[in-house]
């Protein structure tokens, strides 16, 4: 090996990075815009938000949906108590919407399972299929054949008729 290296072929990197010095006295417009934005818009907004956060209570419970108290069923209302009738009807409508959402969620879970499992869906999604069958049967038993204009009174009468039919069927078996 030769003693003297060819410094042109194997250049050594510089030991220090050179600092670029400003050659103009005009300030950078980007720096001016950032500073102006910080003082004019960002600082007041941050200050006001800090004040508002200090005034708000720390352990406030957050509710993302309205909670209604349970009211008596239509069968528990006294005769001529129209306010109770109205509240029972509103409660029935809320319960119906909740039951519709439950059926929809179970249906979406089954669809996701079928999509995920592909050809093995019949054996791997059996629990979801059974759950959907149970939920839709329960929904159909309660709200089926009521139609769009169904109400709490019609639903109560349907339950009464179904219970009477079940009682007759039970007596016929004995």
Descriptive terms for the model:
174 residues, mainly alpha, 5 helices, 61% helix
Would you write up a description of this structure?
The protein has a domain at 95-172. The chain is built from 5 helices and no strands. Helix 2 packs antiparallel against helix 4 (126-143). It has helices spanning 29-55, 82-117, 121-124, 126-143, 152-173. It is mainly α. It is 61% helix and 0% strand. The protein starts with 28 loop residues before the first helix and ends with a helix.
- State the end-to-end distance: 112 Å
Beta percentage is under 5%
The global form is: elongated
Q: Taking all residues together, what is the mean pLDDT? A: 86
Low-pLDDT segments: none
Order of helices and strands: HHHHH
Question: Structural class, please?
Answer: mainly alpha
Radius of gyration from CA coordinates: 37 Å
Number of strands: 0
Number of helices: 5
What can be said about the biggest beta sheet?
none
| Percent helix | 55-70%
């Amino acid at each position: 090996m030769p003693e003297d290296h060819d410094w042109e072929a194997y250049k050594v990197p510089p030991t220090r990075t050179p600092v670029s010095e400003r050659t103009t006295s005009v300030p950078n417009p980007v720096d001016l815009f950032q500073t102006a934005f910080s003082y004019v818009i960002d600082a007041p907004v941050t200050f006001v938000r800090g004040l508002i956060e200090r005034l708000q209570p720390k352990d406030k419970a957050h509710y993302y949906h309205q909670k209604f108290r349970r009211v008596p069923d239509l069968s528990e209302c006294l005769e001529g108590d129209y306010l109770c009738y109205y509240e029972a009807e509103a409660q029935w409508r809320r319960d119906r919407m909740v039951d519709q959402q439950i059926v929809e969620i179970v249906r979406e879970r089954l669809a996701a399972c079928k999509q995920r499992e592909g050809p093995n869906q019949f054996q791997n999604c059996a629990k979801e299929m059974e759950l959907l069958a149970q939920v839709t049967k329960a929904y159909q038993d309660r709200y089926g054949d009521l139609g769009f204009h169904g109400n709490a009174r019609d639903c109560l009468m349907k339950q009464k008729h179904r219970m009477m039919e079940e009682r007759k069927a039970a007596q016929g078996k004995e």
